[in-house]
Structures are given as C-alpha cells and as structure tokens.
Amino acid sequence: MQNSITSLLNIKYPIIQAGMIWASGWRLASAVSNAGGLGIIGAGSMYPEVLRAHIQKCKAATDKPFGVNVPLLYPDIEKHISIIIEEKVPVVFTSAGNPKTWTKILKDNNIKVVHVVSSSRFALKAQEAGCDAVVAEGFEAGGHNGREETTTLVLIPAVCNAVTIPVIAAGGIATGRQMLASMVLGAQGVQIGSRFVASEEASSHINFKQAVINAAEGDTMLALKELTPVRLLKNEFYNKVLQAQERCAGVEELKNLLGRARAKKGMFEGDMDEGELEIGQVSALINTVKPAAAIVEEIWQEFEALLKLPLK
User: Fold this and answer.
1) CA dist 37 → 14, 177, 288 (Å)
2) What is the value of pTM for the model shown?
3) Which architecture characterizes domain 4-203+283-307 according to CATH?
C-alpha cells in the first residue's frame, strides 16, 4: 500500500508500533520493521548509553527503517538527541513536550519527525514546528494521556480537519477492523501499542503480558490526573491511588505514593500487585501472545479483507 505515511517512512504497511516504556526495545522494533511496519524503540525508560546499545542492535537486526520515541520532558533529552543523530536514526517520534525545541535540529540532520498529540490545538503547534506528521492519540490509549479526554473517534477527524500534514491514528487500535475505521476517519496510518505489549518480542514481563490478555472491559482507568493522566490496569497499586484521590490527596502525597521506578516494578519486573501497569482499553480485545510479525500480518490481512467488502 502506498500513501503519504508509507512514502514518508519508507515502509510497506502504514502500521507503526508505539514506543512504549519497558516494552519496546530493539527486539520488538526490529521484528515489526522486518514485518513491513515501523518498529519504534521506546527511549523513555532507557539511560542514554542503553539507548545507544538498542539502536545499534536494531540496526544489526534489520535493514528496514525504524524509529525512536523520545519523551521531550526526559531529563537526559540532550544526550538522547545527540545519540540519535550520531547513530543516524531515520525517524523520531516525540511526545510529552514542545516539539519546537528539537524538531528543527532533528530535521537539519535528515531525521523525519512525528509528534504525538491529544488535540487539534497541539496538532497545529506540531505542524507549525515543522513536524512531518502527527500521531493523534485518543483517550482510550494506554500510558500517559491527554487532559482533554477526547476519544479516538472524535479526535481523528478533528485533527485531520485542522492540519495538512499526514495524521496517524492511535488509541484503542489493535485489529484490522479498527485500522480500517481509523483510515475512513481520515488517518493515513495507525500507531499500535497495547497489542504489541502482548507480543513475544516485547521486553515487558510475562506476568504483565498475561495480565493484558486476561483483561476485560472496564479493567483500565485513567488515574493520577493531578500529576500526569495515565491509563492503568486495575490492581492493588491502582486501588491505593483511587483511595488517595477519593480523600483529595495533594500532589506531594500522590508523588510519594507513585515513588520511583513504579512502572518498571510492574511492567518489566512483573509485580502485578504493587507495580504501575500502563495499558490501553483495547486490552479487553487481546487474548493471545504472538510473534510481532504475526500481529502485523493479522492486522493487515483483516484490513485488506474488510476494505474489499461492499457496504451493507
């Protein structure tokens, strides 16, 4: 399939694997890229030299394009950007910050830049900053979320109406059927996170993968809005957060409750009680752990089959 996203990113399918902390290292990124999508290394949970090692291993594992996701509020952002430029990473997905800060520097080094947004207003800012495309991520998504709480079904057409650069849909997408719906709404590609958490190559702990495929409707909730909104799988830690919020706990108490390395404890180390478990609502539709290539192929085949069906 050829469209503005496949041409921009030089990929076979307009399927992008999200850069997720503690889940998307070089194994997952290279597997998705080799399967025809765009694999992304999630730099948010990596020290600079760890990121360098993942980039180098990814380059050794695939001759296809891949990207790095960089949260712009990361404390070592300058080192991350320098490594990305030195290693000649072809694509960077930025999030959680002002795209103006680094977009020009990256583009001056022949790196394509895509920014993740949660509203039309931020999409316009990304376009003004010179980004090549935007990911419009709806409220259904796992991990850190926009404060607007706009759902994907509303956000995608709104962003498509607001900007002229290509739009990639994200949030609540795990199947070819959902991919087709996103494209009908105007998106030129999809970014998928939760489905790839439950892949064999994801670096997330097997306990977390099992929790994802066991999740049912209503098992995730948006929490910690007083800090940064994040969608979590319900567990003992989530219950503590809920109790704190119900008694109107202040920001400092919530920060202390969150502590350090809470996401690592859950998603990477497998503590299903006290860990922070970031996953999207679409986990309710995921019931198997598969190789990343099989996931890409399954999504694409369903998308193509439905595309050929007449409307009823």
Assistant:
1) 6, 17, 20
2) 0.94
3) Alpha-Beta Barrel (3.20)
